[in-house]
Amino acid sequence: MKPCHEIESLFLAYHEGLLPEQDRRRVDRHVLGCTACARKLQQLSVLWETEPPAISVPPGFSVRVLAKVKQRRTFAVGEFLNRLVLPVLKPAAVGLMIVASVLTGRWLAERGTAGDGRSDTSSFEQSELYALEVLDVDSQWSLMGVYLSLGEQ
Amino acid sequence: MMGETALKTDNRVKESDLVRRILDGDERAFGELVHTFQRPVINLAWRLVGSEQAAQDIAQDVFLKAYRELQNFRKDSQLWTWLYRITVNTAISYQRKRRWETVFSLLESNATRTWQADDHTRPDVEAERRDQWDLIQKALQRLPANQRAVVVLHRWEGLSHQEIADILGITVSAVESRIHRAYKNLSRWLSKLLEEK
């Protein structure tokens, strides 16, 4: 007779009706002569018939999924902006600020409002100083980059 | 025989219309897809990994992947087959990355789970059912991932060998061979766990 552990490995397939006829008969013959295996087969069959509980869908699941989809889309657009558009927009914005400050400086000079010891400076220098006062550190570096690139040209 | 959480729709026209609307950017259409398939996807994931929290994470990833890859969906196949494929692959990757967390999750107490209790079943019978299912899950988690997938799809989703082959992208004879090996291993593990009980 086949050892019990060999027959044991066939129990589930036997229960599911997946065994070829020859193996099925082997199991039948074995359990007729082995009460321990007969009991084990019976226990396994009962266990295997257990219907798995279904878990509930957590509340708001589909809402969270949709929110993540939107987030990924926004992130994708943001990445696009960061990588392609901003490197172009930033110097353009700085350039615009320089132009604006030059024009402002000229206007101020014409109106004679620069009475703080800077009246000897040119209007361009006044606008440059004005720009340096209002620009943050990053923009000042950008401005320097623009000057350097203009100088190279 | 089909497990109650398996979902098949033969309405190909409805499905292809839904897919077309989603690809056109219709968010409500995608919401419909999620709502229709969330329960079977979460339950399939849970049966594959044995952890409720992991199943929810996996299900979320499944729908995100589905959204990203919907343009690759072949119109001659069915949405549920395609989603099940993504679920199985995502569950396998998830477990591979989090091997130890999955093992520990099997020790979650029953009280932390949100099983749908059957209103007609007595609490003690329900508790016994959960204990028995825990035993099955412990044995399932000892199987290699590819064997576990075929057993879950065969036994609890009630799918045919051809349907399982379509989902896993393997031949029918490969499915039969895996089922045979899986049941052999599972038999041994369950017998051992029953002895220890």
Present the secondary structure layout.
The complex is a heterodimer of chains A (153) and B (197).
Chain A: H1 4-8, H2 11-16, H3 21-33, H4 35-48, H5 61-111, H6 123-134, H7 137-152
Helix pairs in contact in A: 3-4, 5-6, 5-7
Chain B: H1 12-23, H2 27-49, H3 52-69, H4 79-97, H5 99-105, H6 123-141, H7 145-156, H8 161-168, H9 172-196
Helix pairs in contact in B: 1-2, 2-3, 2-4, 3-4, 4-8, 6-9, 7-9, 8-9
If you had to describe this structure to a student in words, what would you say it looks like?
The complex is a heterodimer of chains A (153) and B (197). Chain A is mainly alpha-helical. Chain A has 7 helices and no strands. The longest helix of chain A has 51 residues, at 61-111. The mean pLDDT of chain A is 78. With 197 residues, chain B is an all-alpha fold. In chain B, helix 2 crosses helix 4 (79-97), helix 4 crosses helix 8 (161-168) and helix 7 (145-156) packs across helix 9. The longest helix of chain B has 25 residues, at 172-196. Chain B is globular, with a radius of gyration of 18 Å. The model of chain B is unreliable at 1-7 and 109-113 (pLDDT under 50). The A-B interface holds A 5, 8-13, 16, 18, 40, 43-44, 47-48, 50-58, 61-62, 64-66, 68-70, 72 and B 4-5, 27, 30-31, 34-35, 38-39, 42-43, 46-47, 52, 55-56, 59-60, 63-64, 67, 113-117, 129-130, 132-133, 135-136, 155-156, 179-180, 183-188, 190-191, 194.
Pick out its properties.
heterodimer, A: about 150 residues, 7 helices, about 75% helix, B: mainly alpha
Largest sheet of chain B, described in full? none
Mean pLDDT of chain B, nearest integer? 84
- Based on helices, strands and strand pairing, what is the structural class of chain B? mainly alpha
**Oligomer category:** heterodimer
Q: Beta-strand percentage of chain B?
A: under 5%
- Uncertain runs of chain A: none
User: Could you estimate the helical fraction of the residues of chain A in percent?
Assistant: over 70%
Categorize the overall geometry of chain A. rod-shaped
Rg of chain A computed from alpha carbons, rounded to a whole number of angstroms: 41 Å
Which structural class do you get from the secondary structure elements of chain A?
Answer: mainly alpha
What level of helicity do the residues of chain B show? Answer: over 70%
